[in-house]
Write a structure and sequence with these properties.
Helix content is 30%, strand content 34%. The chain has 295 residues and is α+β, with helices and mostly antiparallel strands.
C-alpha cells in the first residue's frame, strides 16, 4: 500500500506535533510558588540549626532572580553574593563548591570569568525536578561556607524529599514519651519543665502563675499556650520597658507599653511568635497552663 504525498505529509505533521507536545508537557519549570517553597525549606533548616543569619536567593533556569529572603542579622552584601551563587549553580549546572575547589587547586584563570555570571563560592546548588535542572538556590551569610551550602541543599531538596545531610547522618527514631497524671499534677503544683530534650525542636512546660510576671521576649522560641485553670490579663506586642537580656536569646522587661490586652481563661489557646513581647499583667488566683515552646 502506497501513501499519497498529501497523506504522508499529514502523518509527518501529526507526528511532529505529537513530539512537540510531548517535549513541552514533560518540560519542568520552577514557579514562584516553587521558589517560595525552596526559601521556606532553607529558612526552616536555618532555624532548626540555629544559623545566625543568611540570605537565600532563588533563580530560574536562565539565572534570573525569582525570590530572595534575608534573615535578620545578615550583612548587606549577602544578597548580591547569594544571587551570584544561585546564578552560577544553574548556568554551569554544578554546585558552586566545585568551582571554588578548582580555583583552590590552582586553576586561577577561572576567576577571569565575568562576575555577573560567575561566583565561585561555596553555597550555590542547582534545583532539580524529576531529573531536570529548573533553577538554582544560593545562600550567603550563615555561620560558615559549609552551612551556606547546607541551607542551599535543604532548599534545593524540597521537591525530591532527598535530604543528603540526613542520609550522611541518619536520624534515629525518637521514642514515644508518656507522663501519667501523677507526674503531670506534681509538675503543675510547682510550675516546671515537663520535657526539654535537645534532640527535639520543642519543649513542654507545665506552667503555673500565682502572681504577675515580667515582660518576656524569646528571640528563638514561639510559645503555644493552652489554659487549664484560672484567669489572667495577658498583654502582647508593643514595647518592653527597661528590657535587658537575662540569658542567651531571652529578654525581660518591667512591663509592656502600647500592647494588645486579652483576658485568658480555661480552654483558651494563644500563640506568641518568637521576638514578640508578652506579659502576664494580672493573675486571678492559681493560673495553670501548658506552654509548648517551638524553636
Amino acid at each position: 500500500m502506497r501513501l499519497s504525498l498529501k497523506t504522508a505529509a499529514m502523518i509527518l505533521a501529526l507526528t511532529s506535533l505529537t513530539s512537540f507536545a510531548q517535549a513541552h508537557t514533560t518540560e519542568k519549570k520552577l514557579t514562584i510558588d516553587g521558589a517560595k517553597k525552596v526559601i521556606a525549606a532553607a529558612v526552616a533548616y536555618a532555624k532548626k540549626n540555629n544559623a545566625p543569619g543568611g540570605v537565600i536567593a532563588v533563580v530560574d533556569d536562565g539565572g534570573n532572580l525569582m525570590a530572595l529572603e534575608r534573615l535578620d542579622g545578615t550583612f548587606a552584601a549577602g544578597a548580591n553574593i547569594s544571587i551570584g551563587k544561585a546564578r552560577t549553580a544553574v548556568l554551569f549546572k554544578r554546585p558552586t563548591k566545585v568551582f571554588e575547589d578548582i580555583i583552590k587547586n590552582g586553576r586561577t584563570a577561572m576567576v577571569a570569568l565575568p562576575d555577573a555570571y560567575f561566583t565561585p563560592l561555596q553555597g550555590g546548588v542547582p534545583i532539580t525536578i524529576d531529573g531536570q535542572i529548573v533553577g538554582g538556590v544560593g545562600v550567603s551569610g550563615a555561620s560558615s561556607a559549609q552551612q551556606d551550602e547546607e541551607l542551599a541543599m535543604a532548599g534545593a531538596n524540597v521537591f525530591s524529599g532527598e535530604q543528603k545531610m540526613s542520609e550522611a547522618m541518619p536520624m534515629k527514631a525518637l521514642p514515644v514519651l508518656f507522663f501519667d497524671q501523677t507526674q503531670v499534677a506534681a509538675s503543675f503544683s510547682k510550675g516546671a519543665v515537663l520535657l526539654d530534650d535537645t534532640n527535639r525542636n520543642y519543649m513542654v512546660h507545665t506552667s503555673r502563675r500565682d502572681q504577675p510576671g515580667l515582660a518576656e521576649i524569646h528571640t528563638l522560641d514561639t510559645d503555644i499556650i493552652y489554659v487549664l485553670e484560672g484567669t489572667a490579663t495577658f498583654v502582647t506586642g508593643g514595647s518592653a520597658v527597661e528590657a535587658k537580656e537575662t540569658a542567651p536569646n531571652e529578654i525581660r522587661g518591667a512591663r509592656i507599653d502600647s500592647g494588645e490586652t486579652r483576658q485568658l481563661s480555661k480552654g483558651d489557646v494563644i500563640i506568641v511568635p518568637n521576638n514578640t513581647p508578652h506579659w502576664f499583667k494580672a493573675v486571678g488566683g492559681a493560673f495553670l497552663y501548658y506552654t509548648i515552646k517551638v524553636r
